Amino acid sequence: MVKLLVILIAVLVCFILYKNKTEKVNNEKGKYNSNSLYYLHIISGVVITFITTIHAIGKFKVAPLGMILTGGIALLLLYIQIINGLFLRKNYNSGLKRVHKIIPIIIVFCIVCHVFVAKMI
One digit per residue, pLDDT tens: the chain, 121 residues? Predict the structure, then answer.
């Protein structure tokens, strides 16, 4: 549990660093993303999705329906977020940018519901 918490904190720090770096570096041509932070952002997202997938596979047989639904929706949104981020790299000014910012809010809501259902049972 402590290892997972350390991994999650490290991943959140990576996301915060990536966001701050992209907001601070602006020029006339638009936003500039450094490649190292971009790849760190992608790797941390993939790590979160991988850990979540392992958690889902391990708990699938014993979990009640409410936990399967909320966890499944969150997991599906994580995969959508990764695919959306890869398309966003090619076309940054598209509507995908707004979707890429909204999906994490929905994922957090699903995780809160997932934990709430787990506490009820």
Answer: 566 667 667 767 766 666 555 554 555 454 555 666 677 777 878 888 888 888 888 888 888 888 889 889 999 998 988 888 777 777 666 677 778 778 888 888 888 888 888 888 7
How many domains does one find in the chain?
A: 1
Q: Are 50 and 103 in contact (CB under 8 A)?
A: no
Domain of 97? Answer: 2-21+33-120
With both helix axes pointing from N to C terminus, report the angle between 35-59 and 65-90 in degrees, rounded to the nearest 10.
160
Residue 28 lies in a domain: no
CA–CA separation, 85 and 42 (whole Å)? 8
- Region at 45 (left for phi over 0; alpha for psi -120 to 50; beta for the rest): alpha
Which uninterrupted H or E stretch holds 53?
helix 35-59
